[in-house]
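We examine the record.

___
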Amino acid sequence: MKKVLSLCSVVLCLIAVVIWQIFSSSTNYYIVCAVILVLSMIPFFVSFERSKPNAREIALISALTAIAIVSRGVFYLIPQVKPIGAVVIVSAVCLGAKRGYLIGVMSAFVSNFIFGQGMWTPFQMVALGAVGFIAGAVFKKIKAGRISLAVSGFVLCFAVYSLIVDLSTVLMLTTEINFSSVLSVYLAGIPFNLTFGISTAIFLLLFGEPFIKKINRITTKYGILQ
């Protein structure tokens, strides 16, 4: 009961901030968007908590999150060439959409202690979480093969991830939000987003299927998802 009351109080405070900003004479759109993004994460964490995961499931999710974090850190010196998107997608394929979302959110948050926390962090968290969630939902319907993994990885990282993350750049850099300013920011980000999308597709093409087999073997052996 105490947890529910605490959660409700946090949600109400965040909603109050959004309402106050919307009706304020000088609305800070960044604060509004950041609060809305934080609110969007809460149902996933609550749902995971209520599912009462066992220790083996938590250990596997933690291990995959750690792999995603390390995969981003290893390629620190190569801008946008990061396997983190591929790891999140593979995890979502094996563990489902909700767990894929959690791994995406947590890996983005923790890895930013290496790359730097900032106003962009909530956007990166939700963007990578969305990649995991959509991948889990898509591959629940279709079989995960090398080509399907690579194509989905490119689309999710180039379109979905960049659409959310570049919004933080729009809100931070543009003094007047209009169509031309928003378009200019998104167009400027295309080379970086293409690099991230293509590198994710390559990682999935080369290592996606073997990685999935390893995770599925673990989940089957220890009955993690049963």
